[in-house]
Design goal:
With 446 residues, this protein is mainly alpha-helical. The protein is built from 18 helices and no strands. It has helices at 11-22, 25-37, 41-69, 73-81, 86-119, 127-139, 143-161, 163-190, 195-203, 212-225, 232-238, 246-274, 286-296, 301-335, 339-358, 374-402, 405-410, 421-445. The structure holds tryptophan. The site of tryptophan has 16 residues, from α1, α2, α10 and α14. Tryptophan (TRP) binds next to α1, α2, α10 and α14.
Length: 446
């Protein structure tokens, strides 16, 4: 048998690492523009509903399967539920590659923007000029690929370093720093002239804009942001010692992730209105096009800008590490390859997949599948289909196959009092399968 499993050094170490996985581009790059495109406040309300009802329950379920089995997703599902179920873990491994293919591209943009803050590219804070900077970058034939490659290499380097030394140490130090910068940017953004309209758009729901597509977008975003539905949380749970208070840790991670997404919304949307842009207009470039004008309006703006993109790149790194770690953990556990070899081979595969994603706004912009670019398709497939499907199957697995025993495991055989545990099981058994199933159908037929 294998050596005893490496464990997180401390409770804080685990929370920081899991929050490091959850908090990333999903919160700061994706959430604001998704909210902009899907009607503002109404999207926020539905998103928060998805977090509370499905997100929290499923974070607990995934962590629990990992902690119980102390194994990678494929072996963990076999351990807790028997034959057939490892397919859910296997689907997660595939999903990790799909997400990484575009994730490293966006992370590459943040590296480019670190340089842009220093070399004066963002000196003209006019909306048209900032739009041009972004378009120029993403349409280039080489830059997006090179930056994606650099980021993929960084991810691989951290994963080779191992769980305790690499991931945990970086997260503990940099997450609090990111929070501090966010607070400063939020304060500046909401006080820009014209910002109130943006705040109202974000915080006052207008439910007349809600369609089935709003629900699909919200649940996909909730899963993406919480790193749910593909075994990343499960893998992190597998490094968790058994005696830990799992529900408390899950709540901390979900709260932090949600807090940072909401802060990013308050940072980006008011600044967008202040710049005279209409919500939905900026697309995947929104955060990059809007924030430089906020830096410009701050004392020490260059420093804030550089610090922001640096920390965003680091937040993206702790997330991409969790995606790659899930894949590597599987190959190391199940196929007896060394960690280094598994990491290098997976990273090369990620890089190859990232090339068409990196070129999706340039050379390959005209190449569409189902009306989407490669980048758009990978994003859609993972967030709107694979992650919710993975979550639905995890809910059924824990709710029905593990069943009431899951409550014993969750509460450390009753040593933690959790009067809400039957409600949790009820959500996993009925609410999540029906709710997520309904939303998945909306996405597929709508
Ligand atoms: N949650 C991360 C973000 O918001 C991205 C991420 C990391 C992820 N691991 C994941 C998404 C696993 C889905 C599944 O940026």
């Amino acid at each position: 048998m294998s050596a005893p499993r490496e464990h997180w050094g401390s409770r804080l170490g685990f929370i920081m690492a899991a929050a490091g996985s959850a908090v990333g581009l999903g919160n700061i790059w994706k959430f604001p523009y998704m909210t902009g495109e899907n009607g503002g406040g109404a999207f926020l309300v539905i998103y928060l509903g998805c977090i509370v009802v499905f997100g929290l329950s499923l974070v607990m379920a995934e962590l629990l399967v990992g902690r119980t089995a102390q194994r990678n997703p494929v072996a963990a599902f076999r351990h807790v539920a028997g034959s057939g179920w490892p397919a859910v873990g296997a689907m997660g491994i595939v999903t990790a590659f799909v997400i990484l293919s575009f994730y490293v591209v966006v992370a590459g943009w943040t590296i480019a923007y670190m340089l842009f803050t220093l070399n004066g590219s963002l000196a003209n804070p006019d909306a048209t000029a900032l739009d041009a900077v972004f378009t120029h970058l993403v349409a280039d034939a080489w830059q997006p690929i090179v930056y994606a490659a650099i980021f993929t290499a960084l991810t691989a380097a951290v994963v080779i370093g191992g769980v305790g030394s690499g991931i945990e140490r970086a997260s503990k130090l940099l997450m609090p720093l990111l929070l501090v910068i966010l607070v400063a940017l939020v304060a500046r953004s909401v006080t820009l002239p014209g910002a109130e309209q943006g705040l109202a758009f974000f915080l006052v729901p207008d439910f007349s804009k809600v369609t089935g597509a709003t629900f699909t977008a919200a649940i996909g975003q909730a899963f993406f942001s919480l790193s749910l539905g593909m075994g990343a949380m499960l893998t992190y749970g597998s490094y968790m010692p058994r005696e830990r208070n799992l529900p408390a840790d899950a709540l901390a991670v979900v709260s932090l992730d949600t807090l940072i997404a909401v802060m990013a919304g308050v940072m980006v949307l008011p600044a967008m209105f202040a710049a005279g842009m209409t919500p939905g207009e900026g697309g995947a470039g929104t955060t990059f096009k809007v924030l430089p004008a906020v830096f410009d309006a701050m004392p020490g703006g260059t420093l804030f800008g550089f610090g922001f993109f640096l920390l965003l790149a680091v937040a993206a790194l702790t997330s991409s590490v969790s995606l790659l770690e899930t894949v590597v953990c599987y190959f190391v556990d199940e196929h007896r390859v060394t960690r280094t070899k598994a990491t290098v081979i997976s990273a090369i595969a990620v890089f190859v997949l990232s090339i068409p994603a990196a070129l999706s706004s340039g050379l390959l912009a005209g190449m569409t599948i189902f009306g989407m670019t490669f980048f758009g398709l990978m994003d859609y497939l993972s967030s709107s289909i694979m992650l919710p499907l993975g979550g639905l199957l995890t809910a059924i697995c824990v709710g029905w196959v593990v069943g009431p025993r899951a409550i014993d495991a969750l509460t450390n055989e009753g040593r933690i009092t959790a009067s809400w545990a039957p409600l949790w099981l009820f959500i996993l058994r009925f609410v999540a399968p029906l709710g997520i199933g309904w939303i998945l159908m909306q996405g597929l037929i709508g």
